[in-house]
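Students often ask what a holo structure prediction actually looks like on paper. The answer is less mysterious than it sounds. You provide the chain, you provide the ligand, and the output is a string of discrete structure tokens encoding the 3D arrangement of the protein together with pyridoxal-5'-phosphate.
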Amino acid sequence: MEDYLPYGRQHLDEDDYQAVLSVLHGKWLTQGKTVEQFEQSLIDYCGSRYAVACSSGTAALHILMLALCVKPGDEVITTPITFASSANCVRFCGGIPVFADIEPQTASIDVAEIEQKITSKTVGIIAVHLTGNPCDMEKIQRLAQKHNLWLVEDACHALGAEYQHKRIGSCEYSRAAVFSFHPVKHITTGEGGAILTNDQNLAERMERLRTHGIIQHCDPKIRKEKPWLYQMVELGYNYRITDIQCALGISQLKKLDGFLVRRREIAAEYDKMFAGMEGIKPLGITPGGNPAYHLYVLRLDFKRFGLSRGELMNTLSQQHKIITQVHYIQVYRHPYYQELLGDIQLPQAEEYYKSCLSIPIFPAMAPGDPTRFFEALTKTLGIVSG
Ligand SMILES: *Cc1c(COP(=O)(O)O)cnc(C)c1O
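The corresponding structure tokens follow.
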């Protein structure tokens, strides 16, 4: 696989290895100080008041839904163009994800479509910053306030992105934002995730849910008499992240700004290459947004080029060793959700799904790689360039 050009890949250096080794040589592999240090680094970077790091982005979404008291039958509105976790977290609590159609330029959730889906059972909205391009948070927040709904961000693509000059994760427009540190995301801890929030009660509740719903005994007097006592006050999970992972997270976060510079350079190169091309169009950007480019998505008119997406992907991989991907199949199309919700078809989501293709973008890409991709693509599509 060495000479393959994937759509995304992690980037680790010697100082990352050393950071992990130093924890391995220490006393605490888990539940030590490195977890708090990583949380503080996330707070400092994003500008929120609290951070709760946990075992994955999905676990983070789960405890966030629990802390927001999502109950069986509650409806939560989200986008169909996302990873399944954005909806699954609602199901973990017995709630019903309701899919609102997307806005065609950016493929992000359409604010007008959200409003159409609000019922008496709706409790909240999960906005997803697809590819790292921020949603129109100001408008979504206004809608949420009007209908008395909570609003949270699935920001798993958006570490380092900005909306109206504020970092995503500062929670300027939301109750909380969730990140993932899976290797394909901006920074990695192997597996891992975090929730950022400015809400102290929410943060404390999530800390408790992350570790079995257990706290020290509430009464300090009893705690003094019986120092071994702890109490499980609600049903929680073991969703802890280890100190080993957090050491990697801290050293990766130090490099994030450099990673973002490189991602934005590559995106600008692609923007220039595809500008004005017939039948190929990059995904649009939200006004006021400074995307983090977790992904770079092209919209392709396959009919025009006389070949299918499968044929293009196979040729790119077999003849050019370039791996592309589709983000995403509509969540409501998965058999599980079809069985749960019946047959759903949202016109803009259907259109988007037919045409999208994620192309290589990651910090460790070689300087010639965007051109290598462009030449392979135009050759396969039969476009005469130059
Ligand atoms: C990666 C991702 C998740 C889940 O994160 P994990 O850490 O893999 O559990 C959730 N939502 C979106 C949009 C993602 O891209």
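The radius of gyration is 22 Å.
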